[in-house]
Every structure is written in structure tokens, then in C-alpha cells.
Amino acid sequence: MAQRHMHLGAFMRPVTIHTGSWRWPGAWADANFNFPRLKTLVQRLEAAKFDAFFMADHLALLNMPIEALRRSHTVTSFDPLTLLPALAAVTERIGLIATASTTYNDAYHVARKFASLDHISGGRAGWNLVTTANPDAALNFGHDAHMAHGERYKRAKEFYDVVTGLWDSFADDAFIRDQESGIFWDPARMHVLDHQGEELSVRGPLNVARPVQGWPVIVQAGASEAGRQLGAETAEMIFAAGGRIEDSRAFYADVKGRAAALGRNPDHIKILPGALVVVGDTLGEARAKRAKLDSLVHYESAIGSLSSVLGVDARAFDPDAPLPEIPETENSKSGRERAIRLAEREGLTVRQLAQRLGGYAGNAFVGTPATIADEMQDWLESRACDGFNIMFPNVPDGLDEFCGRVVPELQARGLFRREYEGTTLREHLGLPRPENRFFA
Amino acid sequence: MAQRHMHLGAFMRPVTIHTGSWRWPGAWADANFNFPRLKTLVQRLEAAKFDAFFMADHLALLNMPIEALRRSHTVTSFDPLTLLPALAAVTERIGLIATASTTYNDAYHVARKFASLDHISGGRAGWNLVTTANPDAALNFGHDAHMAHGERYKRAKEFYDVVTGLWDSFADDAFIRDQESGIFWDPARMHVLDHQGEELSVRGPLNVARPVQGWPVIVQAGASEAGRQLGAETAEMIFAAGGRIEDSRAFYADVKGRAAALGRNPDHIKILPGALVVVGDTLGEARAKRAKLDSLVHYESAIGSLSSVLGVDARAFDPDAPLPEIPETENSKSGRERAIRLAEREGLTVRQLAQRLGGYAGNAFVGTPATIADEMQDWLESRACDGFNIMFPNVPDGLDEFCGRVVPELQARGLFRREYEGTTLREHLGLPRPENRFFA
Predict the structure, then answer these.
(1) What's the half-sphere exposure (Cβ side, CA atoms, 13 Å) at B57?
(2) How high is the ipTM of this complex?
(3) Are residues A86 and B85, on separate chains, in Cβ contact within 8 Å?
(4) Which domains does chain B have, with CATH numbers?
(5) What is the pLDDT of residues B32-49, one digit of tens each?
(6) Distance CA A40, CA A46 (A)
(7) Which residues of B touch A70 (CB under 8 A)?
(8) What's this model's pTM, rounded to 2 decimal places?
(9) Across B131-240, where does the E strand assignment appear?
(10) What does the entry list as the binding residues for FMN (chains A, B) (predicted)?
């Protein structure tokens, strides 16, 4: 069997996810509003040959209690479709994935902005299609209430159809630019979409030439039944939740199976779980680093969240003792059991558990470059993933450690590219360029 | 009296306006979709110390007959709010003005994108607030018909109030980022707008820190009664139509008078008419250059437009003879008379008149660097303007001629800066930084 190669995205918000990371000694606390620093970060990711810089988004302040919110460096962030063009201008190869909502946008704007970004970047754009989970966003866009989950997904599918249809407004050869005859483009090579649907009415054509990649790469992250189905139908990259490797294998098989059942080539959906990576010289040093990172999370906010998860008032517990036995309650059983199992497995105190969950509770690889590469290789080779969306515990140090120590280890094992082979995000990911649905 | 200094914007679409310009020998016909070329152009404008790169926009194909449209290099263009961040990343001082519609946008998106651009560019963003004149845009945004003129202006004013209110969501000192205490920002220094108006309902706050300039510079171009009034109330730069110097003086006095009557400092509205500039070694060479440029305009399309303007079928005339006497018709008298006067003044044939109007019919300075500087100086000193939004007959040559020959002439006369003195667009234009309406 040929060696599998992994794909790496850097999941940025636009910097780190972990809520304590900005307090790390030497961390660039202002990086999310400091363009020169973001430029440095993306250039270092490109030097490490990442497939893409992947930017999350929110259309309102994060909906968390004010005590946690005022300690959060992710409370605000640049608009991704404004930041990524700027990053495109200072890089040459790395892909640039922006999150944009199908619930709180016009399809014409979304189609045009991604098409523009794809031209400006020479074919490096990706669209993370989201339906927006934060109900506060509705209030910023003239709605009284958030659209229901099912309706959001119905609109998302129609929105996708319209955006991709608008990208196909012009044949790739429509623009002739014959200075002699004076013909700039050929109207016979233009298609007017004339979409009249349940959610959207958009005439077209788009007033931008077809993107370099045909279509920017379609990315999705939905984990619900509706989200998985939309992903199987339309996604080319999926940001999976991660979690236990056996759960990830099941997710991987499920989504690829759904895609195959729909007649798609399952290799044309790349599944990249999120992974927080903490690097140390020894396993112990890496774990201590993570413990220190978690200790920077505000305890009062964290213990409140833990109380919600457990369904009991955890403020009454001794913070520096192990978690006492927790009675069953009406609360979500899976969340409570995951927390209890985590505390047992790692021997965490109440405080440590609260801060772990308050910092970043998702999938993490904590170890030496070799043990981290072992885990990543196991995930890849056992078909739990096609690569990872890496999250850094802090910047710039955590990013530099991953790029400078883990990437070379992956390269030495033949698991990751040493040089870019293509120039577009599709080429990095091994995805085909879509045919124009209206023109041969 | 102290010497007046002029301000110069480069009005780009995103390159040239004249419909024959892409056919000029050596012209960069593909510049509107070629980022490396646009990067070169903006860097040359910055080297010439322009105040701003000013980008027009359309939200649909231009509504012109297909025979003209298929010969137009301005048929499509990048989204300005996607192109300008990329240009920000490859420049350091020049202002960046993007056109964005108040009719076909969400105020929250517009506020957020301009705030992001202002941060990314270090305070160089400007917003050309338009209500969108092309009725075809409505069909791309789910509307059956274009909003009426009065309603568009009413919405524009409310939209402006919301966007500027969102920019003021955070006090300038709201972001503390105290790594020791873990407090990232101060909720007491945040204002929730909670706007409930006739056209818009937007809660806020914006999830972006206050822009570097407080507010990006507000630009407008409306010439109607409603447009002038909105400009007097809110604009800091006005793109005026130009035309005859005496008309421009009257416009200048009218708008500055309206602003003063509203209690504004008239110096805080800069009026910059558009001007196509064609440079030659002699007056004759410049005129021949312009004639050649006009000759690249498609005659069949141009004669159709001339027929509409004159209210008669101009196809019946000898194209190479002077314009015959034109009877009065029901058509707009002012348009017809302007065309007849132009043909008389410059001794144009029917063909030349048609191609002139089909190419670019607005204000133009055609001559040697010295005669062009004379005209520009006369306009400035007689208070017909505070500077100009320059249009180039072709790129790169027309741009290089202006930057390399006219700018040094203006500098030698003390009319234009030799170096940037400030770093923000407001500083280039001599505009104050707005106070935050919610925080001292």
C-alpha cells in the first residue's frame, strides 16, 4: 500500500483557541488585531508547508457570561474575508479558508468575495460554509430570533447551489480581450442563473470571472445529522470534531460512505479533525506545559461551566481534591460522563478539570515530537482522518514548536510534504477542479 | 494668504474608466483581474504620494446594450472590500477608499469590514457610501424592483448612523490585555447600540475594536438634491462630477455652505471632482492622443448613445462631417445642448462626437504638464475644488505620465506634497479623528 500523506490546516480565530493562551509568558496578546503579527504567523505556516490557514468566525460577541467574556482574547476578531485577502498578498502558496455564514449573508456577496479572493490569491481560496450557531447573531442582522436548525440547513443547501451557480456564470474562456477587434468578452460564454427558490431569488450573472480554481474549496464542520448529510453532498474538506480515535474512525467511515452512496468519489472529501498540539522535550514537560496553560484559565468562570456540565454545584467541592462521586441528574449524561472519565484518566483535581474544560476540551496531542507524530500517524493510517486542523496552545511559541519540531518529524517519516507541488489549494489537497455546469 | 494644497485620489474601476483604454497599444488589458498588475499600479500611486486609491463598484453587470457591454473592460470587477485589503498589505501610506452600497448590504457587515480594513491598513480606510443607481442590482439581492430614490436616501442616512454607531461600540482604551490579572477588556468601555429604526434593526456591539481612525473617512458622490444634502450632513470627501469650472465653483460653494449651516466646519469636507488627464509634449500631441483614445471606442455603440442624447437617429448623418443642425425634441434639453456645444467648441465630426461621449464625457485636462498644472491650480485657487480624483486614459502609460510628469510640476509649484506627513488617510486629507459618541 502506498504511503498515505496527511494534510494540515492551521485553525485560527484568528490566532489561538485556548482561552488561557494570551496570558502565556511571551504570548502576542494583541495578535488578533495586529496585522504585522498575523502576517508573520501565516508566513511561518507557509514556510512549514501547511495546506491552509483556516479562519473561524462569529457574527456577534461570543455568548458566554461576562466574567468569562472579559477574559477572552477571542471576544472580537477581524472579518475573515477582509483579513484573508491581506494575507494572500504577503504569501504565495498557502491556502486561505474563510468562514462565511449562509444564514446572515447575501449569496451574491459571498460568491463575489470568494471569487475575488480566489483570483487575488492565484487559486488559494476556501469557503467554510456555516449556518451560524450563535443566536445573538440574528439580532445584529434585523431578525428577532435565530432561524431554526432545520431551516438553516435547508437555506444552506440552496445558498450553496446559488453561490456555485454564480461562480459558473462565465466559461473559463469567456474573456477574450482582443485589442484588435475590440471584443473584450463573449456573451455566448455567459450564463444568467435566474434562480428563484424558496429562500433565495438571485438573477446573476456574477460580475466576476470564473475563479481560478473553478470553485473555491468547499469546507464544512457540521456534526449533526443535517450537517453530516450536507457535508457528504457538498463538502471537499470537513473540519471534524476529533475526540476519541474510535469515534473519529466511525465518523470518517460514515461521511465517506454517505458520499459514495451519493455517487461522489470519497477521496474528494478530506476529513481533518481539530487537534490542539502541545510539544515538550519529554512527555512530562509537555503535560506540565499543558497544565500551566490550563492554570491560566479563570477559575470562577471555569467552575461555573463545570457545574453546568455535571448538573451539580461544583463550587462546593474542594478545588484541590479529586472529583467526588457525582450523582446522576437530568443533565446530558454524555457530557457528565466524559468529564468524569477525563478526571479519572488524568488524575485531575476539581480545579484542573474545570480549567481543562474551560480552556479547550477538544482533541489534543500532548507529548514529544516523536510521540505526537506517532499519534498523528496512527490516526492517518487507521483512517480516522486525512490530516488535521492544528490549533496552537499559544503564539508565536506554540506555532514555532509545531512548525520547527513536529513538521520535520512528519516529513522524515514521509507523512507530509517537504515542498508544495502545486500552486492552488485544490492541488495541495488533491481535489479536482470542478467542471462548469453550464459550459464544456 | 497661505498657499492651498491639493489632494489627489486615483479613481479606479479598478483600473481605467475610458471604454477604449484597454485597446491602447501596450495597455494592460487584463489589469482588472490581475492582482500583480494592480499591486504595481497602487505602489506607483503611493510613490507619487497620492492621498488615496479610490475604487468604484457595481453590484451587477453594467446596464448597457450588449454590443457595448461585450467591448467593455469594466463589465466585471473585483469586490472592492476584497481587493483593498490585499492592496493594503503591499503599501504603507496611501489611503484606500472602497465603494459599498447602503441599499444592498447589511450595516453590521459593512461596519465590520471597514473597521477590519482600517486596522489592517493602519488607519487608511475610506468608505464611499452609495445608494446604487443600477436597477439590475436589485435582482441579484432578492428584490423584484429597485428601491425608489427617496427611500434609498432615507435608508442611507439611517445606515450611516448605524455603521458609525457600531464603530463606536468600544472606547479606544477598552482593550487592556493585562496578562497578569487575566482581564482582556473592560465591559464598562463597551456600548450596545440597540438600534431599532424604520429601515434597520441592529443590536450590536460590533465585534471589532474601534477603528484606528475612529471612523474610516466617509466619502460620497451624490449630485442630486438628496445626495448633496446627505453629503453636507455626513461626507468628509465628495467625489464631484466636475464639468465646467464655473459649475464646480457653484457646487463647491453650495455644499460647503450647507455644511456650515449645519454647524460643520466646511474645511472638514474635501471636494474632489473627477478629472481624466491626458498628457503630451505639446498641446497638439495631447489632443491627438485623446482623439486616438476616442477612436478606440466602438462606433456602432457610440452612435446609438449619441442618438439617444440628441433625440434623433444620428446613424443617418455622415459620420465624417460636422454635426448638422439638430431640431428640438422632447428629450433632455441640457444633454442635447452640451453635446452640440462640445462638437462646436472642438470642431468634432459626428463620429468623433459619438466616440467622445461613448468613451468618457466628463471633466478632462488635456495638455502638457504645464498647461494641466495651470488648469488644476486655477480650479484649486478659485475654489472650484480641494483637489481631484484623477482618472487615467490608459494603464500603465497614462498613470506613469501623470505620476512622472504632472505630479513633479505640481510639487514644484508647492501645490502638492513631496512626502507624506501623516500615516492615516485622515491625516493626508487634514480631517479630524471623530470623537466616540458614547465615551470620552
Answers:
(1) 28
(2) 0.97
(3) yes
(4) 7-279+368-429 (3.20.20.30), 283-359 (no CATH)
(5) 899 999 999 999 999 999
(6) 10
(7) 183-187
(8) 0.97
(9) 175-178, 183-185, 195-196, 201-202, 217-220, 237-240
(10) 57, 99, 149, 153, 224
